[in-house]
Design brief:
Aspartate Aminotransferase, domain 2, 7-stranded mixed β-sheet, Aspartate Aminotransferase, domain 1, 38% helix, globular, 4-stranded mixed β-sheet, single chain, alpha/beta, 453 residues
Length: 453
Amino acid sequence: MSDASQTQSLTSEEITKLTRETNYGTWRVQKTWKPLHVTDAEGCWFTDSAGKRYLDFSSQLMCVNLGHKNPRVIESIAQQARELAFIGSAYATDVRARLSAKLLEVLPAGLEKFFFATSGTEANEAAFKIARMVTGKSKIISRYRSYHGSTPGSIAATGDPRRWPAEPVAKGQSFIFAPETNCYDCPIRHTYPGCNVACADYIEHMIRNESDVAAVIMEPVVGTNGVLIPPPEYFPRIREICDRHGVLLIADEVMTGWGRTGKWFAVEHWGVKPDILVTAKGITSAYVPLGLCATTKKVADYFEDRYFSHGHTYAAHPITLGPALATIEEMQRLKLVERAAELEPYVRAKVEALKAKHPSVGDVRGLGLFFAIELVKNRRTKEPFNTMRDKVEGNPTVVDQIAAKMMADGVAQQSWISHFVIAPPLIITKEELDLGFAAFDRHLGIADALVEA
């Protein structure tokens, strides 16, 4: 019997066991990993081997923006494979030109030169190299509650505990960290608006006191680390600071791009134009892996007479580009950016109702279809149930316990240390939203029982 035939005859339990024994489960302690055997997905739902359906309330990894099994995107993959499955990035192709023209239509104005990678982390690596080559400087400022990827440069730029195991290699990457913008629980103990956005001024202080800052990288809305929404003045102030000191501004829109926040890109909420924008995930609705590093013409012009020292085998891979074009066209046809904005008040009312009912909910916040529910042991002190150290050491967390109960009810929900990230497909209905929030309502009692009086 062939290996393929043997694999096809495996039971679901054997498939899970084989996966568990031969693969690494990412960002976790391995001994507790028992991956669910998924066999199908369509719309806002996916199905396991027993036929049980799960509402995908976080779009897997906040990426399946179009929902599962969109026929136009699926056909674009097959069509591109038939036309031109692969050619090196040194060549021009129809799909590359057509996607580039479409990007000029939807990206923030001024971003006109593109490098196509195969993930957000690779696109960030390109951004770092470009910024350093163009400025001739080495240091890049990031923020503590941030995630930018898992390869050496992007994990070095990550502020959260996923960076810790990469050190001391990460320390040699010339990244320095600023406080995040978190008006619910300010890391520098200020209170908005009386603070006059001191967290932005702190970054200017860093630039003045470091010898060679090339760029500042920021998620316009912090993603897995809490869906942190900056106050209105923050990004315009950061743009002014960068301009004043000749520092490039990199917007990491890997998670916040492609309609997630009710705009094509989150920076548009504040009218800010970055020098470099990095994105991935929703660019193809995650049907194929694609990352994009987009720069202004001013940045691009530096390389007209200078060597562009970057590239890899799968850069501008045709099969990744066709689905991106189809995804953008589907988003336009279905008006999904507008839909995310229209559903925001509905979602906000739902999370506010949970906060009013459950004493463990310390804060709720979000934009578009991108929200967080943050749990606390004590609303007055804002003390969380768990810490970053618990996550790294594999200790059980309260949010994971709640997410497990929701999963048993058929709602798949992303959790991280002390909060949940709500980011359903942009095609989700109000009825499906109701199902997801009802599951929260049923199981937040687990945390309520642990709240300190």
